[in-house]
Amino acid sequence: MYMNYSYILFIVLFIITSHNSLARDTTQLPEKVQIVLENTKPLEYSRNNRLPLYLWSARDVGIFDQESADKIVKDLDERGIGIVCTINKNNIEESISQGITMAKAQKKHGLMVNVDITSLIYGFYIDDATTAHIDKKGNHFFDDSFGNNRKMGCPFTLDERKNEIRDRVNYSLNKYKAEGIEIDFIFADWEIDGPIEVNNAFFSSKKCVRCCENLGEDFGFVEFQKKMREMRSYLQYYAYSSPVLEYFPDALVGNYAVYPNDGCRYWFDYFESFNQVHPFITDQEAIYRQWYNDFPLTGYTCAMPVVYPWWKIFTWYDFENTDYRWFYNMLLNASNAGKSTPGNVPIISFVHWNTVFEGTQKTTNVSQMTKNTYQELLWHMLLRGTDTFFMWSSKNDFPEETRLVQEVYADAQEYGDFLEKGWPITFNVPSQPGVVISGLALNNQVLIRRTDFVTNYQPIQILVGTKKINVDYNPGICKIYDL
Questions:
Q1: What is the CATH number of the domain that holds 313?
Q2: How many CB atoms are located within 10 Å of the residue 66 CB?
Q3: Of 176, 174, 189, whose CA–CA distance to 122 is shortest?
Q4: Contact, 73 vs 109, CB < 8 A?
Q5: The whole model's pTM is what?
Q6: Which of the residues in the chain have pLDDT under 50?
């Protein structure tokens, strides 16, 4: 048989060239974007007015030109994901410029502009005597109970610092405004800084002559907590939320772990330790601390609860079903935000799946929450008021964390009308493993999800408004009931 070897060689070279070209196109994508695209799926149902999904893996996705930004924004939006750009005070001009490039692409596609302003707000406390406590001998000192890298000092020194922080924020906002860009969502992860009452802060203030002059020699913890939260809220309002809302009145403005609450804190952050002067209630071995509802004083326009599997949660409860130890506490916390937050205030919940340990030390006595239970938790959060998720994760966990949360977010969009307009029907969390029911009522229907932690799969009767309905066992799915 006669063969045209020149033609065959052309075909082979064409295939190799095309393959290499495709490979180059793929590698040109920022690493974070590749991870997100490989571990998510396009939305089957339109997102409409629902808030996008926020991911730590889609925050500061890389350096790009306008054309690349347009494509990345479009690709991630097809999966419901909103890109967040950080303003970095140590690299302020370049970070703002890069953020504006992304913002132009977001506006071009009719999407929200999302900004992380954390760097600009740190820090009110600085590592010198001007923000330190002073003892009776005139010695300056800091509270070291928050870690060696945080110099937590006297809250009554911080009025001198507020204008520097506010000026940084105003400068950055003005850059966006000058480009005709409206910021739609702006958040901070501002935690270990400013007036605060946890750890040894109370005891440090008791030894500080300046604190005692302002609070009185005999101040107690409850009074101290109230004053610290009021001061903390004022600084957030003055230096952060009020400037943002002056520039962008319709913006969603929030901060990590600041959300309306029922007077209890059901979790400890990684830097927090318990002290006996802090009022608390117990639930088995769990300690729920008295918390101050500072949200109304901050000026924030969105709530940002934190629903993480902190490793201590596992040790607090004795449920034989170990998944319910996680689920119980985390749903308590999510329900706290859901029932306490006004309906016109969006709830953007920080979530995470992998167990969160303190530092690098891990314990083998903790059983990881299963993926299925985590995704069930996310569903129940959506049916109890959470509007969208902000998934935090370390880089090593990006792929799986991204896949798990985006899968729920995408599947839930089938019920987009309920998510946007529905009202939660219950915030009850069974104190023992049993049947957990959550739902959203809309008009004459209710969307319900039932998750069983026991093996009795009989129908469960619940009251929705003025009508009783029987909720059938339907594992892994939602069901719409007529009212």
A1: 3.20.20
A2: 11
A3: 189
A4: yes
A5: 0.93
A6: 1-3, 5-27
